[in-house]
Structures are given as structure tokens and as C-alpha cells.
Amino acid sequence: FSSPNITAIIDTGSSVMFVPPNDTAAIHEQIPGAVLNNLIFLPRTGTDCISAIVPQEFSSTRDVWIVGQTFLKNVYSVYDVENRRVGFA
Fold first, then answer.
1. What Rg, from alpha-carbon coordinates, does the chain have?
2. Greatest alpha-carbon span in the chain
3. Is the Protease keyword given for this protein (predicted)?
């Protein structure tokens, strides 16, 4: 990916993942048949499938990923506010 210094923000209110454009491209290049045409279409039998990993540039010195329901719907998450950490299973 574009940087070893990626900051991930876990956002339960986002339905997609917002990822820097270079990282978005790197992810979708790994999917055979993916087509970029303003939206990223993934191969699927019958109907089109639109990727929920969306390119977004943030004004920061670090690369930022906003991790939303695209990821969170597949894991159990625990939010430890006191110790400022999140766990996934």
C-alpha cells in the first residue's frame, strides 16, 4: 500500500470504506475482472456488483482509511474507550 503509516478510523456510521486512491487501485487490481469507470465494478454472475471500497483523499500527513460497515459487518467488534482501542474477532 501507499504508506506504512496508515491511520484507520473505525466508523460505524459509514456504509463503505474510504481509502486513499492509490490503495483503492491496489486493492481492486487484485480482483480479476474489476473495471474502473467512475465506480469500480466487480465481476459477478448476472448483475453488476459495485465495490464498497471508495477512493478518498484526506488532507493529512498520514494515509487515512475510514473503515465502515463494508468491513464491520464481517466481524465482532469491541470498543474500549478507556484504553483507546478497538478489538475484532
1. 14
2. 47
3. yes
